[in-house]
Structure formats: C-alpha cells, structure tokens
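Throughout our pipeline, every protein is held as a single compact record rather than as scattered files. Nothing more is needed to write down the fold, since each code stands for a local backbone conformation. For reference, a complete record is included directly beneath this paragraph.
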Amino acid sequence: MSVKTQEELLIAVGRNRDRDAFAALFSHFAPRLKSFLMRQGTAPEGVEELVQEAMLMVWRRAETFDPSQASASTWIFTIARNKRIDALRRTRRPELDPEDPALVPSAPAAADDVVFETQRDAVVKQALKTLPPEQADLLRLAYFEDKSHGTIAAESGIPIGTVKSRIRLALAKLRQSLASELM
C-alpha cells in the first residue's frame, strides 16, 4: 500500500467511509488538535471531548471536503476551532434550570389575604378622596408615579419646600383618616 497524503485520506473517508484512512487521520490529528485547543485556552478537562467531537465531525462531513478550497489540516483545525467556539457559547449561555426559584411562579395569595387587601385598598382610596386636590395630586405623583420631589416641583411650578410640606401634610391627614377607619 502506498503512503497517502492527508487530503487523499480525507477524500477516502468521504467517498468510501474508509475506516483505515480515518484511523490514520485520527492518530495524526488528535494529539495536534489537543495541543491546539489547549493553547487556545480550552480547559484540560474539556479538551478530550472537543477533540472527539471535532474528529466525529470530520467523519460525518468528510464528503464535503474540497481540496481546492483548503488543505486537510486547515479544514480539520477549522472544525476543531468551531467546536471550541460552540462549547464557549454553551458555557456562556447555560441551559435554564426549571427548578430555579426565580423561575418558579409565586403561589397564589390566600383568599382571606385577597379579601383583606381589597378592603384595605378601598379604605385607602376613600381616605385619599378626603384630601384637598393639590395634596392628593402630589401624593399620586410622589408615590404612584414614583417622581422625586424635585421633579414634581419643576413640573408643577411649585417651590420644592412647598411640595415637601404639602406631601407631609397630606400624609399626616391620610394617617389620621386611616387610623379612624381601621379602628
């Protein structure tokens, strides 16, 4: 048997599924791919698996090799490089864990809690209606629209000190009204 070039071996694998040709390619390239991948920063515990995946891809895709486009070594090392990139992408975007507490929906609220919250909300809404309109508006802006006192002052044209004092007055009235309602 004559000595075949790497390209001839690869073509034999692609055309005839020549196991001997593949064994020769494997014994030549596997250690070189391992060194290449380790130099590229692949962790030692993952390099063997990547070499196996790359060589398996060589076996599966050998019929697509075109010696006019690249040499056998370039083609094989490109496959190994791409396998390494795929592995990096998998580790950077791990699979979602369905047991992750952040992904588990919250338990529905107990019926008595829902009733209590509904009643409390109605009491608060009624207490807000008893406030003067300018105080109720300031509370709405500050607590429901989450705007800062400075933003409220700028938007309404009221001095910031006045905004703060009206909010303080509104909260005191609200507290007083709610205390009498909830007693």
